[in-house]
């Protein structure tokens, strides 16, 4: 998830800032992991890893999860970038800040809500994914959803209920924190 957030943010920023040939095609390609069924993506990734002679394990699992989480981050960050006034960046540079200072002090705080929402989506998709994980994980890399699924096959036990509750509470806690941040930002805007 962390890798997807970093790469997705960089891709979104690059797609916004730079004009290059094939930009629309690349933008369209980011819809593929969202549109195609998970089982198709899982089989395609498993086949690709097999062709490239990459053994199943933690490495393939990380690549797979990064692959299907990046588009969600890209689209959230792109929406954030498109939604703020870029004259603030220009003003920052007019006042003597260089590009790096402007990025860290102006741009990053402005697009951070998009980064957070992309990270939240990437986390919830990643922690919930069974199908792609099933096809791309190896013997030493069992994810929590696969573990829960294998436990459910033997019958629903208190362990399964506890794990499901913990996952639900983590996601609920993230949602509550996100909503509190939104309310705080609304209060700050009204105070101005």
TrEMBL record:
Pfam families: BPD_transp_1 (PF00528)
Cell compartments where the protein resides: Cell membrane
Domain ABC transmembrane type-1: 1-178
PANTHER family in the record: PUTRESCINE TRANSPORT SYSTEM PERMEASE PROTEIN POTI (PTHR43848)
GO CC terms in record: plasma membrane
Annotated family: Belongs to the binding-protein-dependent transport system permease family. CysTW subfamily.
Lineage: unclassified sequences, metagenomes, ecological metagenomes
Name under which the protein is recorded: Inner membrane ABC transporter permease protein YdcV
Any one of the GO BP annotations: transmembrane transport
Keyword Cell membrane: yes
UniProt organism field: bioreactor metagenome
Keywords noted in UniProt: Cell membrane, Membrane, Transmembrane, Transmembrane helix, Transport
Cell membrane keyword on record: yes
